[in-house]
Design brief:
About 30% of the residues lie in helices and about 20% in strands. By secondary structure, it is an alpha/beta fold. The chain binds adenosine-5'-diphosphate, iron/sulfur cluster and magnesium ion.
Length: about 375
Amino acid sequence: MGEKSAAPLLELKDLKTYFKTDDGIVRAVDGVSYTVRAGESVGVVGESGSGKSVTQISILGLIPSPPGFNAGGEILFEGEDLLKKSKSELRKLRGNKISMIWQDPMTSLNPFLKVSRQLIEPLQTHQGLSKEEARAKAIKMLEKVGIPAAKERFDQYPHQFSGGMRQRVMIAMALLCEPKLLIADEPTTALDVTIQAQILELMKELREDTGAGMILITHDLGVVAGMADRIIVMYAGRVVEEAASKELFAAPSHPYTVGLLKSVPRLDRGRSERLIPIEGRPPDTSKDIPGCGFAPRCPWATDECTKEFPSRKKMSDDHYVHCYRAEEVYAAKLGTHASAKHVEKIEQGVRNGSTIDPATGDLNG
Ligand SMILES: Nc1ncnc2c1ncn2[C@@H]1O[C@H](COP(=O)(O)OP(=O)(O)O)[C@@H](O)[C@H]1O
Ligand code: SF4
Ligand SMILES: [Mg+2]
């Protein structure tokens, strides 16, 4: 793990990114706050549509406007608010201090240009290297990301590389300018499992080498398990739980996180243990959401839950949750060590009106 300094590299403060649509205002990101420290890897998880990508695109200053707009908050990068920067200042930051790895490599790669040109140019522009220096550095990076015969393949076009190799080229491109912050949005979703594992391992090594901070976005908690120091769980445009990785997997304290854990394939559980998807769908953020947005799907929901959005509770160091019943969920120990049977028994009990004894974690009544 890289060095962690005290001041955060990135600090999101109550960030709001909305979209004006025919159906009303979509509150895609609705008051999101979290930090990323230098050298730290932060995983952002949540179902599709929870606002993970819109948050990152806001950081990059690439929200299409209209229909998108900033409705409040701050994005402090090295202490400076990116929302106050000009377009040209933001362009300078992107691909330099802040780099992005997209799900589809062709978002970053131009199909009509040789890989060599696409890697050399940013080095000349951002770092003022000569063509020869840039060429040497780029080839070295391609070797580092595991592209065989990098020198020979350097002058090929993106389509001459396989999917996994293209992903590596994109990672090389993202890392070339030694970014301080690396954002990876579902970087391996399109790849087969073996290549996924290789790419994730590679990103981890390179990050540890350079000490960059990283945000890894995924809908799959399994992906961040070995990769993230800390995990942010998003639901309907908001952060609902945040904790160190180990703590989150051991003691999830938001019923939605418990639901996500149940729906992750687990190598350590027997084949007989089936994956249980969370029933229902996330709310439409263009409609008013009274109270906790998870309430219609939540086995723990009570009348209180639909009145006001629950405030932030501290469970332990670095572990925060927005849930009225967080103490009970925490006490019931519904993390990855719990069997699906145990989780189901607890959820059935609380659905029928029982509570959890915070001391023992057992069902009352
Ligand atoms: N250009 C847009 N116009 C309207 N709504 C948008 C636009 N882009 C994203 N959204 C909405 O913002 C919400 C969050 O999307 P997104 O951040 O992409 O989710 P995630 O990455 O978590 O799957 C979704 O409801 C999506 O429909
Ligand atoms: S606040 Fe209520 S509805 Fe929301 S997750 Fe907690 S128990 Fe469930
Ligand atoms: Mg997304």
